[in-house]
Structure formats: C-alpha cells, structure tokens
Amino acid sequence: MRKIAVLAAVLASLAACAGTPAPAGTDITAAQFQSDIVGKTLKYQSADARYAVSSVSTYKPDGSLTGDWSSGGKSGHYEATWKLNGNLVCVTEPNSNGGGTTCRAWRMTAPKVYAEVNPDGSLHGTTTVTQ
C-alpha cells in the first residue's frame, strides 16, 4: 500500500511539472509575425500560475525587444533581441530567465490573441496585441 501511495505522489508531481498544453490551432508564419506582431504593443501573461508574470512589450523592426514586467509584487524593465528562424520566434535574453536563446512557435487562438508555444508543445503564455 505504501508503494502505491509513493508512486501516486511521484506521478502527481511529474504531472505538475509537465506544463499546460498549448491550445490547438495553426502556427503563424514568419510573414504573419512581421505584419501582425512587430511594432505593436503587446500584453503578455505567463501560463505558469506558480510564477505568474505579466508584461507589456514591443518587438521592434530592428530586432530588439523591450518591455516592462511584473510578478509577485515586483516589477522591472527588460531588453532582449529577437530573430525569426523559419516560423519560430527566437528570443535571446542576456540577463532574465538565466540568459540564452529560446525559440517558440506563435499560434493565433483568437483575433489579436496568440499562444506562445514552447519546444515541448506546452504553453509558455498568451500574448494579446493591444495597439
């Protein structure tokens, strides 16, 4: 009986780490990203409820990404760079999230609303075009 309880606890903790699955839909193309996202004001909300982060940012035509974030009563400004790799949006963050580059697909889920999809298919967060 104890083995079953331990196994159940391990499976529950693994399921919690798996992340929220991204919603179904079609990923946008690089051309759609350029026309629908670049130069617009964006509001982001992370999918991870444990470490909820929101931000307002802009992907600029020169390949820079700037924004202001808030999480758990803290806030700040961030700067990164971005580029397209096929239909993936690759963001390089020198300081936040441990630094490095992450490439994600963007999937339109409603007019002006996009799911940012991690390489493992989980939902990174939701971005809405506000202006």
Describe the structure.
With 131 residues, the protein is α+β, with helices and mostly antiparallel strands. The protein has a single domain, classed as Lipocalin (Beta Barrel). 18% of the residues lie in helices and 46% in strands. It contains two helices and eight strands. The chain has helices at residues 2-17, 30-36; strands at 42-46, 54-59, 64-71, 74-85, 88-93, 100-110, 113-117, 123-129. The chain has an eight-stranded antiparallel β-barrel. A hairpin with a 2-residue loop joins strand 3 (64-71) and strand 4. The longest helix has 16 residues, at 2-17. Residues 1-17 have low confidence and may be disordered.
Short recap of the structure:
With 131 residues, the chain is of the alpha+beta class.
Please describe the topology of this protein.
Blueprint: H1 2-17, H2 30-36, E1 42-46, E2 54-59, E3 64-71, E4 74-85, E5 88-93, E6 100-110, E7 113-117, E8 123-129
Antiparallel strand pairs: 1-2, 1-8, 2-3, 3-4, 4-5, 5-6, 6-7, 7-8
* Order of adjacent strands in the largest pleated sheet: 1-2-3-4-5-6-7-8
Q: What percent of residues are in strands? A: over 45%
State the major sheet.
8 strands, antiparallel, barrel
Give the overall pLDDT as a whole number: 84
Oligomer: single chain
| Overall number of structural domains | 1
Uncertain regions: pLDDT < 50 for 5+ in a row?
Answer: 1-17
Question: What would the keywords be for this entry?
Answer:
8-stranded antiparallel β-barrel; 2 helices; globular; alpha+beta; disordered N terminus; 131 residues; single chain; Lipocalin
